[in-house]
Amino acid sequence: LIAHGRLVGTVAFAMRTRPCFAESEIEAIGLVADQAAAITERRALHDALVESAEQLRLVTDAMPVLISYVDREHRYRFVNKAYTDWFGGSAADLLGRPLREVIGEDAYALVRPHAEAALRGERQSFDRELPYERGGTRHVHVDMVPDDRGAEGVAGYYALVTDVTTRVRHERTLATLVDRCPFGIYVVDAELRIAMMNDAFQR
Fold this sequence. Notes:
Blueprint (H helix, E strand, L loop, with lengths): L1 E2 L2 E2 L15 H39 L4 E6 L4 E4 L1 H7 L3 H4 L4 H5 L1 H15 L4 E9 L3 E13 L5 E10 L1 H16 L5 E3 L5 E4 L1 H4 L1
Antiparallel strand pairs: 1-2, 3-4, 3-7, 5-6, 6-7, 8-9
């Protein structure tokens, strides 16, 4: 069985006597073989896609960041385990639901301009505090990568959301402590530019 120039299987005949096929029978056998080759190839492709999807699920579920795929209608088509842990329910509960419905109106109002830009093919990366309907207010870093399919246009976007709430709280606490110091403190970056200074230093 040959499909697209590649061997995908064989057809075998078991007969008591040596076969002598007529030309019409040979043509019929050829048609059957072509159909069998196409079916075999589709089955192999399906199995490969299933295996690939399972491997993708294992990898994304092991990651601590929220990963999702949102289509042009702003509906979820893929979410990983971190996403379901955050918003509750299972992946099946979230798939097909609108972004607005899952994260809430207030958070959606802040995210929507970035989502629409991603659907125009513009990659997005931003940090901001979002008032999620479930899970409360969190400070997150978000990356949106357009799924640009060339002539077909942008089909959706991949979103990676990292919860940086704890880090931001620590940074704010440190900044408060530094500002309360009676002596001057400043921090320089790798290019020897002042990145932070307290009130005492400015005085």
